[in-house]
């Protein structure tokens, strides 16, 4: 019988034995194995003690993956101790793991302490612990748990991460060469954050910078410096420093002080809100900048055509200024009023926002009276919510608000509120005014449509928000628009959603804002898209968008139509036509998305003036940064190039790495350590370990379970991971840390021999210096070793401890045949 055949038979026998070990199908607690089924010469030297008792684990310390009621928790060292009857072993549950179980108080009192920092769940009725394949699976009846939402990770299991430094950036450069003898133009702008994490605290400084060649002006500002920390058990967030008030009741105001507020991201998904969207049409490849009170909150480069910005922070509220800078130098601006969906809260729960401090400006100067602000929402019942708040700076300014929200069930959700303000003018006179607001939202599942938000707001002439009061009182902004009426609605509808190839989506948006002291503002539009097939060609898509903006007395009309036909694997040919204020520019296009990390599009046609026009868009995603580049040429007018570079840098005591980074600030990130092995791809190759075996996976959604995955299929064949996935839940802004056991090297067959020329027992394990298992000893001391290197020393374990060591001979290759490995 050949060695390979005998080895396969031995492995099969071991798998049968393992059924009793892992699957717990053996009827007896203690099992005696008939070793005659194993093709081993010396059956007295077989170490199967760990298989002889159901789920028996040799006493000792083990690094195990933890699973609680089916949810993965990060790895942890677990000690197994001998049971009093001497026939079993018991896992010691350390205190920090016991907290992660999120037990009710009465259940927690049932848990017995065995030794110092060692608890047993045997006294908890229904609890069961099973160890298999390196996983400690803990099952606790739901009756003993604080929470009952399997799709949500409770706060006891959230990870605050490790201490470290972060630096994120988004840079945009633009160069325009004028062909009509006018001045050339170039600019550079950027924004981002730098900071440090220590425990649960995050210190952050948000910056923005710009340079414009037209007036040789350079600016750099730290526009916001603050520190914050999550308070998980309160479902709240504490912030100190320069803050933008994030209130569901009052408008945004910048101040220096303290803010304690409920953070609904810590709540189960069904209880969370939404983030605003910004839609528009770019005539050429353009830079879109979204700012609020002079602070950049988002900036990116978009190709020509309709754009939809969806990844703004959900804390962004109030009026946003949108600036679209085309590559021909023209600029269009409009405002977006981000509205809140009806302010409803779950029954018996109170959401709150408390703040105190002094108003401050972007130059960090405090200007204005000290004020206190507080708002709340109380869920009275399943249908009713009561909300309101108070904002006061003594005799200078006070505002009070009260409202009620109603869940109308099949009819949607509705809220109505009123806010009254008392303010002092610069000349000492006092003003009193009221603002009324109505909000409505409804999803019609049966009709595949929804009214995302519909709202109306009316403010009396003498009503002032705190920001308006400060502008008039201290900044002399007498011409600041004082809002009178605001109508807004956004809705979408999908037609023929259940018919393949006929689904058509319609999006509508309308905003009307008028003022007591200046021109009104209107913005409305619609977009419709459909994917269908003609004959054998499927995946043909069409879209039509139309927008009108009337802002500060200027009208801007844009219409965009496009059709694309697939001509290969993720490749399309298309026609794009845009009309802007009556001038039309048709363009033929070719798009290639076949490589996820390299997307590009090129278009050629005519400009609005009838001249030849060519533009292109290229996006490159790498592990170090994301690059978006656009280029445009218009005959007789200009040649322009713009690039956005977005990335970050993270450093901890475990290492440092450059990495890709999204535009959203204060997202969590995961640092991955692969034991010094470089080139390991992670999470769909969004990151790859550097020369030091360190990588950072960016843009991890806070408070959601996140899987850090090794892309095994894309990994070099000489790398052997001990496991391929780790799961954790990070708090806001956290730097998570995951270490993956890795072995890199040869694969070869070895024969282990002890000093007396006998072999280690069947089932003994071979580990490298990092504790990664590289082989199990089979019959006659044979072992198939994976991920080993010439000259490397390996530890051989049996009986629960290290027994001897082997060394891989220098000069060994995978073609060396079976190697003799003395175990000393």
Which structural traits does this protein have?
Immunoglobulin-like; 24-stranded antiparallel β-barrel; globular; disordered N terminus
CATH fold topology of the domain at 60-157: Ubiquitin-like (UB roll)
Shape, principal axes of CA atoms:
globular
Provide the low-confidence segments as ranges.
1-31
Give helix % range. Answer: under 10%
Name the CATH architecture of the domain at 60-157.
Roll
Q: Please summarize the sheet with the most strands.
A: 24 strands, antiparallel, barrel
Number of helices: 4
* Number of DSSP E strands: 54
Average pLDDT number: 83
CATH class descriptor name of the domain at 60-157: Alpha Beta
Terminal-residue CA separation: 30 Å
Structure at a glance:
It contains four helices and 54 strands.
Overview of the structural elements:
The protein has 824 residues and is mainly beta. Among the domains are: 98 residues, PapC, N-terminal domain (Ubiquitin-like (UB roll)), CATH 3.10.20; 78 residues, Sandwich (Immunoglobulin-like), CATH 2.60.40.2070. It is built from 4 helices and 54 strands. The protein has a 24-stranded antiparallel beta barrel. Strand 37 and strand 38 form a beta hairpin. It starts with a helix and ends with a strand. The N terminus is likely disordered.
